Amino acid sequence: MDKCIREIRDKAQELLETGQVEVVIGFTAGTLPGKSTPCFITRGEDCKLLVWDEGCKNNLANYLLKEKRKAAIIIKGCDSRSLVNLLTENQLSRDRVVILGAPCPLTEGCEGCQIKSPVIYDYLVSGKAGKTGEDDFHDVKTFARLSPQERKEYFYKEVSKCIRCYACRNACPACYCRECFVENNLPQWVGKSTQLADNLIFHLTRALHVAGRCVDCGACQRACPMGVDLRILNRKMLLEVKELYQFEAGLKEEQELPLNTYDPGDPEPFLAGGGEA
Amino acid sequence: MYEILKDDFFLWLKGQLGQKEILAPRLKEEGYLFLPWDGEELELTGYTNTLKPVKDAFFPQWEALIRYRMDKGKPVQVMGENPATKPLILFGVRPCDARSILLLDRVFNGPKYKDQHYRERRENTFVISLACSEPASTCFCQDLGISPLAKEGSDILLVDLGDKFLALADTLKGEEILQERPFSPATPGSMDKFQALQGVSRQAAAASLVPEILSGELSQVFVLPLWDEIYRKCLNCGVCTYLCPTCHCFDISDETTDTEGRRVRSWDSCMFGNFTQHGSGHNPRPTGKERIRQRVLHKFKYFPENYLAVACVGCGRCVAKCPVNFDIREVLKRLGGCQDDMSM
Ligand code: SF4
Ligand code: SF4
Ligand code: SF4
Ligand code: SF4
Ligand code: SF4
Question: Engineered SS bond to A44: which of A16, A80, B40, B236, CB 3.0-4.6 Å?
Fold first, then answer.
């Protein structure tokens, strides 16, 4: 990683000092053991404060949505998929962003992660690009074999821990709606209590809203202060989308989003009679 | 000062179960939480503080204030909700959280405004705290002049002396209990031990983290360039305020069906974008900058001006749980003129 961080710092400094960007979004040392913290660097000499280590866990793609300056961003595999998503959804303009891709700094990595290196970048730091394998979704398939009762119990247990702080949603680069349904009060779609029903509606709706767009980066789960673990739900949606549409989110800039397109010939198995007239 | 053998104390506590509900720190998957205790052995090794603050017992995350029914042709019926009235013992509160109760009292049970629900719960609750012997790395009560051995806000504070607890009262209610068996007056040996502990904690207390500049003119503090920098990484979530023992903002919403409904009060947070959203669409705190500034200044400037105390007790929950490692200690240091730290 030493070589990697040297390259990152040098490139970032060069981009700032040559005026190609006004800000570099990356990580610097945090105040807690094992935590690095997102930072916004505007002076070339400050690039020495950049780090790339185990603690770099946040998905930085999120920050580009609010950034008005021309920015360079240092990203790993899953962040790059979020970026692709944001580009295909027209939330970002490609020419305002310089992408500094780097290999995922987590030695353990996340279970099931197949994309440890960026799929999109302007500069690639020490390492190789792209996809490294196929996700076999064995966790989803194993979970599906549990009885409905057991599956329900799992979800109830997880969502009942939730305090509705929305850190998961706010950390998620796919959750960028200006007005989220949970905040809408005319009408109020979901109650503000932390009763099971309200918590379930929040989580199930969010899972559906990010279906076909979630890149399984884990940012939501890591942000949660209460240890709510609903990754299996997101992964189930990933698998559904993959099987129904042969689509995996955030892999190619040119690919069309399955839920954003319509073709009269689309199969409609969920309609009565399989959609046949 | 009093003392009690630990075994005797837990027997006594168990004896209270008949008339009172007891909440104690219980270890769950996600961390320690105040949960009902029914007398089995408490596992407190490794307990530094609860994940959720003690405010939940008085000012719960959500509660129904009233219920109502509207039948055609009949006047609207309004039913008031009565908060649970079974007397409660809160056991294992940490001194920082105990102090936070006194701060919430100023808001919800002060001379100007009395919140009926808060007050009923508060008056029904007996607080037994546990002094801290091993603060966590995120604890900074001492930097705010609060001692990990402080009894303020507790009816009874227990200090761990090995096989016994030293017991101090901060209220008349507490004193009355300590005067009776199985509590007994502290022996000189126990008092010496306590004094030694106090000495250590006093030594550890550094200069206050709250910078001078915050007692100055608001017009100057409000426009510091620091606000333009520190907010950028913040996600505007509810973690730091929901988990804060002193944060007390709430929202009120109506949940209705065709004929009936309830009015719900739930925690709210100045970190949320819509916290100050007006009906007109205008938002006086349009970006994260104004929101972070509000959070910091409310705790360290406005609250002290309104209620004569800093609204942070140094529990460190916001530091430990912020998803992006926004560390309020760093903000205070920077406000105090410490070297520029990129990590903010
Ligand atoms: S839902 Fe979670 S895992 Fe999926 S993109 Fe959003 S933050 Fe990442
Ligand atoms: S971050 Fe966790 S506690 Fe907060 S809303 Fe999401 S699941 Fe609930
Ligand atoms: S400071 Fe941290 S915990 Fe607080 S709102 Fe911002 S991201 Fe959330
Ligand atoms: S601001 Fe942070 S450290 Fe201070 S009382 Fe609130 S949660 Fe605890
Ligand atoms: S810091 Fe924010 S949420 Fe907390 S009490 Fe103040 S205004 Fe309310």
Answer: A16
Token pair 């919403």 in the structure block, residue: B253
Q: Within a domain: residue A267?
A: no
**pLDDT the model gives residue B82:** 77
Mean pLDDT of A22-46: 97
- Who has greater pLDDT, B211 or A69? A69
Q: Does B104 contact ligand 4 (Cβ within 6 A)?
A: no
Domain segments of chain B: what residues? Answer: 2-52+84-204, 212-251+270-335
Nearest to B201 by CA among B284, B267, B281, B145: B145
Q: How many domains does chain A have?
A: 2
| Helix/strand/coil for A227 | coil
C-alpha–C-alpha distance, residues B111 and A88, integer Å = 57
Domain assignment of residue A39, given as a range: 2-124
- A144-189 residue pLDDT tens: 999 999 999 999 999 999 999 999 999 999 999 988 999 887 788 8
A204, part of any domain: yes
Residues A178 and A213 reside in one and the same domain:
yes
Nearest CA to ligand 2 atom 6: A168
Output the residue whose Cα is nearest ligand 1's atom 4.
A214
- The reply to whether A170 and A219 lie within a common domain is yes
pLDDT of residue A136: 87
pLDDT digits (tens, 9 = 90+) for A97-116: 999 999 998 887 787 788 88
Average pLDDT of the segment spanning A69-85: 95
Render pLDDT for A180-230 as a digit per residue (tens, 0 to 9): 999 887 788 899 999 999 999 999 999 999 999 999 999 999 999 999 999
Interface touch A194/B62, C-beta < 8 Å: yes
Distances, alpha carbon A70 to alpha carbons B52, B69, B232, B263, in Å: 40, 56, 15, 46
Q: Does A217 contact ligand 1 (Cβ within 6 A)?
A: yes
C-alpha to C-alpha distance for B264 and B254, rounded to whole angstroms: 6
Q: Is there an atom of ligand 4 within 6 Å of B89 CB?
A: no
- With CB atoms and an 8 Å threshold, state whether A227 touches B321: no
State which of A89, A124, A159 marks the end of a domain. Answer: A124
Q: Which ranges of chain B have pLDDT less than 70?
A: 84, 201-207, 338-344
- Is A80 in the same domain as A108? yes
Please tell me the pTM assigned to this model. 0.94
Ligand 5 midpoint to CA B327 (Å):
16
Whether A276 is in a domain gets the answer no
Domain co-membership, A170 together with A251: yes
